[in-house]
């Protein structure tokens, strides 16, 4: 869409240049026709011819001309336009109009060949110039469509950027949340909050010992814990913690079974396991 906008903008800019050249052409033709009695009469031509002989080089006259300025239809050109007249001898190389001054647009060259006896073959070349900046041409061009397309492209680009930025941020947040959660059955352990959530996203009310034991079950890949490992972790240095562990398991079982689809089982009296109810 941005490329389309620039394409339309360039086209409008080129059309503005063509409008300026077209206006210079019509103004030049009108000006020469209106002033041909003054510029192209025999006395003027003879004066041009004598001036050429004295100087020994082509004569050029450049400057603002009131008639030429008034003939322009584009108001912005009236203060930046000039009219150029070049007088050349017969068979002289017409190179004076080959180059257009930098920053200017030029009309076509209007050539008149003298046929008077005293100045036979003398050539008068007319051309109009307008010094147009890029800002001026831009103001003359119709940029509504390009501007609309560019605005739409910028809005779409901004929307896309913020959407993907937010989407990426959300995914990262979700990924981080997933990394901080361990789910088994319909009970989830939040490592960040150090608590358990049931299926209704309600926190389980556990004592510190109950939470620590459940966390050990969840961090075990098999969800199976030996009694000796549990006692060593929960009551290090205690000689016989079997009775204490039994009491802890007995009080924890109903909490787990009432709030999830899990249950705590005993494996031959030497280990406890956490499994999904069948």
UniProtKB/TrEMBL annotation:
UniProt keyword Transmembrane helix present: yes
Residues in OmpR/PhoB-type domain copies: 179-276
Regions crossing the membrane: 145-164
PROSITE patterns assigned to the protein according to its UniProt record, in alphabetical order: OMPR_PHOB
Gene Ontology biological-process annotations: phosphorelay signal transduction system; regulation of DNA-templated transcription
Protein's organism: Bacteroides uniformis str. 3978 T3 ii
Pfam families in the record: Trans_reg_C
An MF annotation (GO) of this entry: DNA binding
Name of this protein: Transcriptional regulatory family protein
InterPro entries: OmpR/PhoB-type_DNA-bd, Sig_transdc_resp-reg_C-effctor, WH-like_DNA-bd_sf
Annotated DNA-binding residue span(s): 179-276
Keywords on record: DNA-binding, Membrane, Transmembrane, Transmembrane helix
